[in-house]
Amino acid sequence: MGTGSELLEKEELVTLVECGRELAAEVGLTTLLKTILDKASVLTDSPDASVILHSEKRGTLYFAHAVGDDADLLLKQWGESAEQGIPLRSKAGEVFSTGRSLVENALADDANHFKGVDGDTKRPTASMICVPLAVAGRPMGVVQILNKRSGGYTERDRVLLEHFAAQAAVAIRNARLIEELLAHMGFYAYRDDTRGPTELIDELNSPAHRETITILFADMRGFTQLCQIFGSPEDTQRILNDFLAMLAEAVFAHRGIVNKFLGDGVLAFFRGEEQALNAVRCAFTMLANFGGMRDAWDAQTNAPLGFLDVGVGIATDTVILGCVGSERAKEFTAIGVGVILAANLMSHARNGRRILVDKRTFNAVRQAVAEYEGPEQFELKKPGETTGNLFERYLVKSLAAGSGVAMPAIPIAPKTGGGEVFISYSHKDGEWLTRLKTHLKPYIHGETLAVWDDTKIKPGERWRDEITAALEHATVAVVLVSPNFLESDFIASSELPPLLAAARERGLTILWVPLSFSSYDETEIRDYQAAINPDRPIDTLSKAEQNKAWVKVCKRIKEAVQG
Fold this sequence. Notes:
This protein is of the alpha+beta class. The protein has helices spanning 10-25, 29-44, 71-78, 91-98, 116-121, 155-184, 197-204, 223-230, 233-253, 275-298, 337-348, 359-365, 430-445, 463-473, 483-487, 489-506, 543-561; strands spanning 48-55, 60-67, 102-104, 128-135, 138-146, 188-189, 209-221, 256-262, 265-270, 309-325, 330-335, 355-358, 369-380, 389-399, 419-424, 449-452, 476-481, 509-514, 529-530.
């Protein structure tokens, strides 16, 4: 079977060769798509053209780019970020699915023609050629041209567009690969960046330099508990992908750079004019979008998900910016105190204190802030050091009207100063409770966590109500297990059952500490993780080893609190 090239004249073949050269030279996806459509329109004498690509996630097609009078409307209503997609039962979907081109010169009366787009544009499609976009047999979408000015579309038009689409598909694939390369090197930016991929690659290959940027860290609170509730790896991956995609889109929407994903969080950079304001606006967009996302997850489980939240830390500073690594493996990154500062602010942005910023960021955005708390001094210390440098931080609670950013629709959690830890123990083991609380003091002073045990119940208060309320706010329960603990009728009937129920129903994390050898394996405690080896309980260790064990317990508690 021939390629149909014999239908083309010499001038048309030359035009195809020249188009191929132009497409090969363009590596920016947005510019490339426009070039493809401009060329396709000229080649076929058509006023309207579009590149329609397939979204694997949505299972539909979408307009990646369009030219013509209705181009902006098409991209808004049927583009990549639009709620609705072009179904596979459409003409474009038929071409995408079968890999066979279509030439239609009487679409108005065609019952199989998808009328959704025509309805939006209020302009019916009269004629159309739709050809597949594919590389190495893998379909990616279609090129569609409409409403030829000079009569109907011919076999010559089909052959010409098919040859052109073959070149265009390779160019699109290459542009996508370059985007992925930039993303993997830590330089994934919004597509309307005034600089193309070539300029970005040149910057990646340039020597590191000093630059004042705004750094943003964002992280989900309670992700570990969420994973325990949903259970399956597939659900965990889906939830994490949805969350990280939401964070990335918020960064792109405010002209930021996604530098890397960190577990269940993101590191982003903001540069240029209004960089600090863009970062703060981005943080509020993240919070606003997370509210709806959490509601969607909540509808999929019987367990309440009120413990889920987002924490954001933002700092503005002069850092060293550039690529580190080898010629074969390098990464774009920032190095400096500002990065450490932003990470520290993010770690303390919890329990209703959602957006913490440094002094320099706050000064830059002060006119746009409606409500805030601060300044609050804190000490930034390196690991192992007893003293550090003093900094100031601000809690940004809302932006002024007209900021263009929706306020977060997530209920504010009670301010506790840190993640809530509920300690269950036998009063006969009170000395071990004291030892644990002594080792937890640095975390309490550093606002990493807050500790509750029944010594906080004041005389005359209803102890059962106090325990219930404390459990409702707790994210981690620490159980000090010994024969005394297992022997207690009160613990067995009144304290342990609601604690275990909270673990099952809302994902409360339980860590248990073996104080002595006991028959814990005859109870439900055996199903939960021990903070240290049960074969070496605390009371079998030397004093030095006990201190080492308590330090390990505290670190495990901190990890559980931070999710």
